[in-house]
Amino acid sequence: DGCKAIINCSGLLRSTAPGDMDAVNVKGVERLVKLGKERGVQRFIQLSCVGATEHATNHYFRQKWAAEDLVRRSSLY
């Protein structure tokens, strides 16, 4: 409460358990965006990576793109 911005620098490059990359790289961002909206946050800064594109062949890059898209579609950018 009272926070004006979220800066997300999280990212999991390799899986150590089934579903953990998605839980951190996409679902975690989804949760932060939701909480930010609920708590009145005004800005969300998402640290992504070079290579994150919609059509990336690398799983990590696709996940980072999905996270970017969640932020882009929110009102917090």
How would you describe the overall organization of this protein?
The structure is a single chain. By secondary structure, this protein is mostly helical. Helices cover 45% and strands 10% of the residues. The protein is built from two helices and two strands, in the order E-H-E-H. It has helices at residues 20-39, 59-73; strands spanning 5-8, 43-46. The protein has a two-stranded parallel ribbon. Helix 1 (20-39) links the parallel strand 1 (5-8) and strand 2 (43-46). Helix 1 runs parallel beside helix 2 (59-73). It is globular.
Q: Strand order within the widest sheet?
A: 1-2
Instruction: Detail the poorly predicted runs.
Output: none
| Radius of gyration from the alpha-carbon trace, in angstroms | 13 Å
How far apart lie the N and C ends? Answer: 19 Å
Order of H and E elements: EHEH
The percent range for helix content is 40-55%
Classification by helices and strands: mainly alpha
Strand content: 5-15%
The biggest beta sheet reads: 2 strands, parallel
Secondary structure: number of strands: 2
Number of helices: 2
The shape is: globular
Mean of all residue-level pLDDT scores: 95
Fill in the keyword field for this structure.
two-stranded parallel sheet; 2 helices; 77 residues; mainly alpha; 10% strand
